[in-house]
Design goal:
Layout (H helix, E strand, L loop, with lengths): L2 E8 L5 H4 L7 E7 L12 H13 L7 H16 L1
Antiparallel strand pairs: 1-2
Length: about 80
């Protein structure tokens, strides 16, 4: 679970709907917690993956050969060696 805690947070920095009834010169402890975790996404089906590839290619993105991909990766990797 994710939680954000801020101690001694100035009331004057809070949004107006949270300041009600509090002294503007006081400080408060603010705790923000996610109420529920986001739903887990299902993995793509083969059909969905193929459709995404088809759309990507239809947008004009060129295909790359395995040799060209390896050359690009090696070039990027070699930049880190310098």
């Amino acid at each position: 679970m994710n939680k954000i805690v801020r101690d001694h947070y100035p009331v004057e920095n809070l949004p107006a709907d949270l300041r009600g009834g509090l002294d503007n010169h006081a400080t408060v402890r603010v705790v923000i917690e996610v109420e529920s975790e986001p739903p887990q996404t299902k993995p793509l089906t083969v059909e969905q993956a193929l459709e995404m590839i088809r759309k990507y290619k239809a947008e004009g993105h060129p295909s790359v050969s395995a040799e060209e991909a390896v050359a690009r990766i090696r070039e990027l990797r070699d930049e880190w060696d310098d």
